[in-house]
Amino acid sequence: MSTIRVAVVGFGTMGKLYADILSEMEGVSLTAICSSSAESRLEAARLGALRFGSLDELIQEKIPVDAVVLALPTYLHKAYAVAAADKGLHIICEKPVALTTEDTEEMIEACRRNGVCLFVGHVLRFFPDYARMTERVSDGEIGPVITAHAKRFSLHPPSNSWFEDDTKSGGVLFDLMIHDIDYLHSLMGEAESVYAVIRKSPGVQYAAAVLRFENGTVANLEAMWGYAGPFTSSLGVTGKDGMLRADNEAYKLAVSRGAVAAHSQRNEGVAIPQGEPADDPYRLELEHFIECIRTGAEPIVTARDAGRAVATACAALESAWLGRPIKPQRLRQSTSALHVKD
């Protein structure tokens, strides 16, 4: 097995998580951590990686790496992805891929031009209960899907963080709701229209959206920063013959027919949503992307999928501003299936 050499760029919550996982993965060398934080120096030494103050420093030193993991604030994704692609590096980018469809297309085009892969961490696809839901919907277990309802509530980000600036983070729509937007696209296909509302007050941001898909399915989505309880997420999908429900508090996929079956719940209160320890979705995601780099296989989440989620989130923001349904923009056809070397 060839060793894939990886650098993690950014060392916040997700950068630390990715670095820990990569340092333990078979067939992977955590070669470098790129961050200006004092903590990153100590952690790089602990993990046996080199430490650089920036991606530019890594590139200037000509350290041999095959891929970079971009665990940076969203507004920085495009500039770093284009710079990495121009140096021939594969890219694993934290979600959302960007804040506009134009930036997304520039990132994809840079990767196509340089013959490298672009993967985006829509980790919900790798949660075992959501993966099982996808299989059961595809198998027709509940018949044609009629409606879906997704909920994702979390603590509010620190008031002094970049998340607080919607021009840098996209707000709760791009940070939380985009998880469910991407997943529902994977089940239902293209969204025909989106109608959304956003409400803000000190320490709270709430968004609700109704997505109407081209296949006729209607989905209701909710996302909230500033939730008083523990992190909460759930998704219910209803078809002609039954319902499937995934719930982070239950840690299982519940199936019911007729009357809704009750199931036990327990509060987890984790900062980063997790699945069962044996099926860590972040590890599954990274292992999948690394294997795609190694083999050229098509990933579960394509760059076009990530761009489609951005387009729908942008339409939701526009809808909230204008107070009417908006049709999501389509990415250019040239951006399809750009996940392997030419």
From TrEMBL:
Gfo/Idh/MocA-like oxidoreductase C-terminal domain residues: 135-327
InterPro entries the UniProt entry points to: Gfo/Idh/MocA-like_OxRdtase_C, Gfo/Idh/MocA-like_OxRdtase_N, Gfo/Idh/MocA_Oxidoreductases, NAD(P)-bd_dom_sf
Domain of life (superkingdom): Bacteria
Domain Gfo/Idh/MocA-like oxidoreductase N-terminal: 4-122
Molecular function per GO: nucleotide binding
Family: Belongs to the Gfo/Idh/MocA family.
Name assigned to this protein: Gfo/Idh/MocA family oxidoreductase
Originating species: Paenibacillus oceani
